[in-house]
């Protein structure tokens, strides 16, 4: 977790993650702004810093190169958007690593669904996840959060919606 003040000009903010973040969730804390999300696989992983998706919404990724620069193993880069770097703004950023080893304990990736939106395969992680957040990237849809306390299985899963005030379902 990194807290920073905006400058209005592109800036690099140091982090201690020790690896390039796979996902970063930004929130402006001094005024109302949408939650801005960077994900390493936005746009199929090609220039993902030029795309955003909103945590508090259900829209697909949109092309917007005013929020993020490419993160590094030591810094997060924010550009000039008021949602990530207004000159008078204060911000919080939640960084999620992406362990590139085959059995990495933190992974930020993608998977495909069939034409009906059903996931009918498996994605090998090398471990049993305790927390999982899923969002359709190319179409509108909710942000689903699954965790081991509610039960994660391949049959049924109880979930919370990050972009909704609904009770668990």
Q: How would you state the average pLDDT, rounded? A: 88
Shape: globular
Strand order of the biggest β-sheet:
1-8-3-4-5-6
Helix content: under 10%
Strand content: 25-35%
The main β sheet shows up as: 6 strands, antiparallel
- Total helix count? 1
- Provide the structure class: mainly beta
End-to-end CA span: 28 Å
Total strands = 11
Low-confidence runs of at least 5 consecutive residues: none
> Cα-atom Rg, whole angstroms?
16 Å
Succession of helices and strands: EEEEEEEHEEEE
Description:
With 169 residues, the protein is mostly beta strands. Helices cover 2% and strands 30% of the residues. The protein is built from one helix and eleven strands. It has one helix spanning 82-85; strands spanning 2-5, 11-14, 21-28, 36-39, 51-54, 62-63, 75-78, 90-97, 131-135, 143-147, 160-161. Strands 1-8-3-4-5-6 form a six-stranded antiparallel sheet. The protein has a three-stranded antiparallel sheet with strand order 9-10-11, with no helix packed on it.
